[in-house]
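stuck on this fold:
=====
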Amino acid sequence: MEITKLFVLNTSDFVFSFVVQNPGFAQKAAAVSIEVSGGLNLPRQKMNFGTSDLMLYPLVVTGPTFVTSEIGQSTSFPSYNNQITVTFSANIKLTEGSIITLSSLGKNVTASWMPLDTVNLTGDSSYFSDSPGGSDSKGILNSLTETLKLFVLKPIDAFQTIVISFNVTNPGCFRPAADVCIAASNILTENCPHNATIERSQIKVRN
């Protein structure tokens, strides 16, 4: 950035601000420098960041992540209808067409003998469908991959908390708790050469 036609007294501090758009992916802090030319020339030198907090360094960007992710259930009784409730929020806007994937749900999670099964969602369900551009308040369970996919129908703002629930039938015998994970893909972001993703991470079990 270049500033022209500026007069500053040698005893004055000059402060200015400008706004940039952070990319949708992680990047390290910029090595910002300053110099003066035209008349009085001051050689380029590295600027002091003025803080030891790495997150406050100029143009450092953390990667997209889920800042909140929790899961709970209504019952652990065998063969009972079990309501699974998931809460999440991301530090990036989840655009229309993004895909949320819950994985490691365990085998035989579908309500029918078919490997794919559409489930009805409740809560903040209007944001999701079981297919791109499909009817809202649905998700698609896959017993082969042990996943639930949610296709985003309308934008979800960064840090907006989403709570959804869906029903599964518990097996008739003991099964240990599943280490359910969450991820996101196909997130459109401005000024990025590719769509953003949120890497797979384990969901915290709600007490």
About this structure: The chain has two domains: 1-62, 66-205. The mean pLDDT is 85. Residues 106 and 146 are 5 Å apart (CA to CA).
